[in-house]
């Protein structure tokens, strides 16, 4: 099974349509089964187009996948908050495997979409050859935020975990693996297993260089985008993608792809 997570910084990128095409082409080429995306936006005042609004980033990606021959993909999107006064920003999961269940829930104390720190998480349950597996697309806040405590978000995220199913938590966790006794260590202490550390082959794992929104003043390489499993699994490989060396850069984050033996 192949998984991809990417904070796509949608509609904020230069040459956005070209980068969207690169993303779609890579999904087809790399043959991912499940894709978790963060910062997936649509214009608030855009007209409706089915379940979403015209120009929804995920919907535009699905159209491109369909045109490239991937016609089985289905998307589940959760609206989090308004962004830049004009967007409805959320997080999404795309699956080419049969989706048996969907869910969406808040992990932040705020549930007000007018508050930019409001965080929601979508879940899908897929049928992977007769095995039900849960996938979550995650975009968490920051360690040390007194208004929206990270510990609360992690507790709410894991509160719904089904112990009788394998679960994968994929996304932008906004906590650097290199900082001890902060968010990354908390996630591991709560029982999650980092597929990067489990991987038989891996690269640096770095997904952010320099300053981005939320990491102003940063001057070090960061590993803040992860794919966690609820139990140890065999991970054949973990690679950073869309970093300029392995496919062109398409966002202010690089993506992470893993290949897992289920």
TrEMBL record:
In terms of SUPFAM superfamilies, this protein maps to:
DNase I-like
Q: Name one Pfam family in it.
A: Exo_endo_phos
UniProt-listed CDD domains: RgfB-like
At the top level, the lineage of the source is Bacteria
Endonuclease/exonuclease/phosphatase domain residues: 19-253
Q: Listed GO molecular functions?
A: endonuclease activity
Kindly give the InterPro entries that the UniProt entry links to this protein.
Endo/exonu/phosph_ase_sf, Endo/exonuclease/phosphatase, TDP2-like
For this UniProt record, the keywords arranged alphabetically read as follows: Endonuclease, Hydrolase, Nuclease
PANTHER family per record: ENDONUCLEASE_EXONUCLEASE_PHOSPHATASE FAMILY PROTEIN (PTHR15822:SF23), TRAF AND TNF RECEPTOR-ASSOCIATED PROTEIN (PTHR15822)
Q: What is this protein called?
A: Endonuclease/exonuclease/phosphatase family protein
Q: Which organism is it from?
A: Jeotgalibacillus terrae
